[in-house]
Write a structure and sequence with these properties.
The protein has about 170 residues and is of the alpha+beta class. The protein has 3 helices and 9 strands; from the N terminus they run E-H-E-E-E-E-H-E-E-E-E-H.
């Protein structure tokens, strides 16, 4: 019996938490060219019945700001600044071993130029730019936005990078 795969769905948006939503809107606009399409707007349980205002975030949630940015390929970047309870920055923001999103990845053929722009605008370069697939021009670098979110930069699209992965026995058992 053949297992039927679902039709691939499009990624709609990613939501991240930042300590200063206005600075994040400016930073993602200046560094990546993302456009603000909505907000910031105030979220409070008493102001609306949206999921963000208590139904999903639970009884501890009291107040936040929310904004929506749009990427070059139409994927949304949803920013949240929680006011009550206030945003906390973890001591270790690279907890890759824990469940959840641990980085965002953006594509730019001028990877060195984008990394330099990230650093010039207050972000961090976490790793060197390196050849992801040895013997090819596929490169990547891990960085961080000024708000503590880990960002990976790929030189090529996801499909270009992984569709023709060299067969070197790297597949998991």
């Amino acid at each position: 019996m053949t297992e039927e795969l679902a039709t691939p769905r499009a990624l709609n948006h990613i939501g991240i938490t930042v300590p200063d939503i206005h600075a994040a809107i400016d930073w993602y606009g200046k560094v990546f060219g993302f456009r603000r399409i909505m907000g910031p707007r105030r979220l409070e349980p008493k102001l609306s019945d949206t999921a963000e205002s208590g139904h999903i975030l639970g009884p501890r949630f009291r107040k936040a700001l929310q904004a929506h940015l749009i990427t070059g390929n139409g994927i949304g970047l949803e920013l949240f600044q929680f006011l009550e309870p206030e945003v906390e920055t973890p001591d270790d923001n690279l907890e890759y071993w824990k469940t959840g999103v641990w980085h965002l990845c953006f594509t730019d053929p001028d990877i060195e130029g984008l990394v330099a722009r990230i650093v010039a605008e207050g972000g961090k370069q976490r790793t060197d730019v390196w050849a992801f697939i040895p013997g090819t021009d596929r490169k990547l670098c891990y960085c961080e936005d000024p708000f503590g979110n880990v960002i990976e930069i790929f030189s090529h699209s996801y499909e270009q990078t992984f569709a023709n992965w060299p067969d070197e026995g790297r597949d998991a058992e």
